[in-house]
Design goal:
- This protein is an all-alpha fold and about 375 residues long.
- The protein has 4 domains: about 70 residues; about 110 residues, no CATH class; about 80 residues; about 90 residues, Serine Threonine Protein Phosphatase 5, Tetratricopeptide repeat (Alpha Horseshoe), CATH 1.25.40.
- Helix content is about 75%, strand content about 0%.
- The protein is built from 19 helices and 2 strands.
- A hairpin with a 2-residue loop joins strand 1 and strand 2.
- Helix 7 runs parallel beside helix 9, helix 11 packs parallel to helix 13 and helix 15 crosses helix 17.
- It starts with a helix and ends with a helix.
């Protein structure tokens, strides 16, 4: 238990004193009664040394601060885990409840996913771990006990979208295994829901897990498999998004010509106009401004001087609600300036990226910031 908590703290670049400060700040905002600062110093040390068990309210506080589940932090089941159905009466009760799910209820599930997506985009994933876990559990239960395809299909589609979002959130906070499992859940749900666009999207995002893990060639293969899955089914915007994913992964692997070719295909596929949201894929946002950012990211990874212009154009047009994405854009700008040996500009963008990533709890961005800072 202690090692997991200590690792999560260090991944965020927090000292024990910083963790205590964040616990106290969270408790004040949520009107929770906690121990004194002096006692918290003892608690944190003993938690990390395995000499004290983390108990409420600190379990909930740590989940919210670190964006990790009880299983990931403390080797315990997550709060509110439902017992297995025991006996025919309970089983039939759940089947009846799932069978009576209306289209309006499925729409409510989708609205909850959208709310979680909006909060995540602006505030980060860490604070959403309990809400996201409960949301997925409710959808999984609904699908588990639904019988007829007419009921199962819309629930499966809703689960595919929610699980893909949950996976990306888990990847952002450094919970890599949870991210992988949620992508697998999303793909299974998309297959059952006869939703090839959702399957292609989840598969392409899952490729980032492999890329971050140091398997770029396998990541590229998976991203291309996503394109094959979506071929003939994907909207034009999703097709462009899939090509942009391939371009980024190729750039990370040092495959310059393949990255540029994929960027060209993304530009050719992208629908005209300023609309960013794909009406058929709520999680896909891509217009010319977003693609400028993606192009700049790819060129920065390749060390191309043209990256700076594309990235500053993207910065000027960035939707202010995409708070977490702005940290990635600042990292891209830092990388582009580093390639030009413009160290002062790179340092300033890294400073701003660190502030944003710390606020949103993005371990993924913080790790990248540390790597780039080492190049200054």
């Amino acid at each position: 238990m202690g090692q997991q908590l200590q690792r999560a703290r260090r991944e965020r670049g927090w000292s024990q004193a910083k963790l205590i400060h964040e616990i106290e700040h969270y408790a004040r905002r949520h009107l929770l009664t906690i121990a004194s600062t002096a006692s918290l110093r003892v608690y944190v040390s003993e938690w990390e040394n395995g000499r004290r068990t983390v108990a409420p309210p600190y379990t909930g506080i740590l989940r919210a601060l670190l964006g990790l589940t009880d299983a990931e932090l403390f080797d315990r089941p997550s709060p509110g885990a439902l017992p297995a159905a025991d006996g025919y009466d309970e089983l039939l009760s759940r089947i009846d409840a799932a069978g009576s799910l209306s289209a309006e209820m499925v729409s409510t599930f989708q609205s909850q996913t959208e709310l979680l997506r909006n909060v995540d985009r602006q505030m980060g994933a860490a604070n959403l771990v309990d809400q996201m876990t409960g949301h997925l559990r409710a959808l999984e239960d609904a699908l588990t006990f639904a019988i007829l395809p007419s009921t199962r299909t819309p629930i499966a589609q809703a689960l595919a979208g929610a699980a893909t979002l949950a996976a990306w959130q888990a990847l952002d906070v450094g919970a890599v295994e949870r991210a992988w499992r949620n992508y697998e859940l999303a793909k299974r749900a998309a297959i059952e829901g006869n939703a090839p666009m959702f399957l292609a999207h989840a598969t392409a995002e899952q490729a980032y897990v492999l890329s971050d893990a140091g398997r770029p060639e396998l990541a590229i293969q998976l991203a291309r498999e996503a394109q094959t899955t979506g071929r003939g089914h994907s909207s034009a915007r999703l097709t462009a998004w899939l090509h942009a994913v391939e371009a980024e992964l190729c750039a990370k692997a040092g495959l310059a010509s393949e990255a540029r070719h994929a960027l060209d295909l993304a530009a050719q596929s992208l629908p005209a106009g300023g609309e960013a949201r794909d009406p058929d894929m709520p999680s896909v946002f891509l217009n010319a401004g977003h693609l400028d950012r993606w192009r700049g990211n790819v060129l920065a990874l390749l060390g191309d001087d043209d990256a700076v212009n594309s990235l500053y154009q993207a910065l000027d047009t960035l939707d202010p609600t995409f708070v977490r994405a702005s940290a990635g854009l600042r990292c891209d700008l830092a990388q582009a300036h580093l390639a030009r040996q413009e160290f002062d500009q790179a340092a300033e963008h890294l400073r701003q990226a660190r502030l944003i990533a710390s606020r949103t709890g993005s371990v993924r961005h913080l790790k990248r910031i540390e790597r780039l800072t080492g190049s200054l």
